[in-house]
Amino acid sequence: MSVFIQGWQFLFTNQAEFLTLLKEHLLMVVIAEVAAIVVAIPLAILATQNDTAKSVVMSIGNVTQTIPTLAVIALVYPLLGIGFNSAVFGIWLYALLPILTNTVTGIEDVDDKTINAARGMGMTDWEVIRRIQLPLALPVIFAGIRTSSVINVGTAYLAFFIGGGGLGLWVISGIQLFDTPQMIAGAVPGALLAISADLFFASIERYLGQDPDVNTGILA
Amino acid sequence: MNTIHTRTPEGDLMNTIEFEGVTKVYDDGTVAIEDVSYSVESGTTTVLVGPSGCGKTTTMKLVNRLEDPSEGTVYYEGDDVQELDRIELRRDVGYVIQEIGLFDHMTVAENVATVPELKDWGRERINDRLNELLELMDMPPAEYRDQYPRELSGGQRQRVGIARALAGEPDVMLMDEPFGALDPITRENLQDEFLELQQQIDTTILFVTHSIDEALKMGDKIAIYDVGKVVQYDTPQEILENPTNEFVEDFVGADRGLKRLQVTQVETIMTKPAEASDTGALAADGNGNVARVLSPTDSTQVALSRMIQFDVTRLPVVDGGTVVGEVTKDTVYDIAKAGA
Lengths: 220, 340
Fold this sequence. Notes:
The structure holds 2 protein chains of 2 kinds.
Chain A: H1 2-13, H2 15-48, H3 51-66, H4 69-80, H5 84-108, H6 112-120, H7 125-155, H8 168-176, H9 180-209, H10 212-219
Chain B: E1 15-25, E2 31-41, E3 45-49, H1 56-63, E4 71-76, E5 79-80, H2 86-92, E6 93-96, H3 108-112, H4 114-118, H5 123-136, H6 141-144, H7 154-166, E7 172-176, H8 184-201, E8 204-209, H9 212-218, E9 221-226, E10 229-234, H10 236-241, H11 246-252, H12 256-263, H13 266-269, H14 279-286, H15 300-310, E11 314-319, E12 322-328, H16 329-339
Parallel strand pairs in B: 3-8, 3-9, 6-7, 7-8
Antiparallel strand pairs in B: 1-2, 1-4, 4-5, 9-10, 11-12
Helix pairs in contact in B: 12-15, 12-16
């Protein structure tokens, strides 16, 4: 227990540095996550339109996910050099798959009868996607965003290795220097961050997937 | 191609939909329908009936181009559907499918407004149409507009499905086993409601079912399918009276005689009062219990059951307070026998 108190003291005495590191960490996570959402969702929609496109997109996504996190960060280094941007790129790459797979699954899981009805009523392919498939897939898509954002918080710890900054600085130097309080001061906020990201997206998910009349009840 | 696109003197098309030598072979080689030809008169209900996999649903999907024919031509209001814009065509044709296919993430109002919105009607027009249709479906707009499909009963969901198909003011409605997933009582009620509704909307209807009873009840004309071919296309009476082959005979069932009673209206067999042999009995019955008379549109089945109920052999037919004819047990029996 005293370790945690020491960790808290370390954090308190290095407040300014902590805030900088937290800001870097958050920035990496948020930028990578937003970029992943922006890229993965359209890519997934595209993938559902064509079986070949789907297998290509899904296998690229799967391959990316099998590479260990550390290796992704390490691979980015020779390609893009060191620094914040490279780190963001690595995190982004790793965040893509959960959103990709969930969007594809969500769209494909929409009942054929519903889609048949939509087509039969004269919706174009795009209208079927926009008015029917995406809204119905939304809870599943958000589950993917939730998973990937939690992963991002963890991956961002490794950004330190390629000069990306973030809370990884304290954790890794803490380990190397046998400075447990410093390590704790870096690790615990990250854990809390991951948990809050999870809870935040979980609440959005619940809101999207919940019974509509309960929903309006809250709003009214 | 020698097709007759007959027009009435008023210029209305007599046949809204025509199938001409239509064959549909799927990519995997399955022949869904083969050389199907018949015409659907405008304003009538044509029921496509047959066992599963006989091609009735495929035939229907050719009309709104959810499928395209491999051979032959489908005409919609005189035009080859292949020449029409697929999206426009579908917006002009109402479509109700089995299991309804309501959009679960949309309210009743949003569901019903789908086609008017696709057609870009103004907000006000959409709103008026919505209220009109929900009233028509006996679902007060104030109560149901903002409900979600999952909050509705099966029968209500089906009503919303029908309202949604009617919303775009279609000339043609395609209904693919619309009452298939309902319990028998709800189904019967909806069938009756729909028959009434049909009087008001004057829409040409193609109706798919696997139930011959439903076909006899709903159809002005019935197309009986057997593995990809139309084996008989006729009125319910003709089908019961003169089935073209053994398949139709079997499909219609052994109780053909009783079914004939269902589809035959009293007015077609009644004798005029002047010709009635015993006008005294007629008057006596006519002045008695109200239920002891028939209306001209009652089925002969109703006539028979009333005769049994009141233990009489003849019943007067009354229209708007005056006796217009009489039905005897013998004539009713003759109807049943003619089909047997």
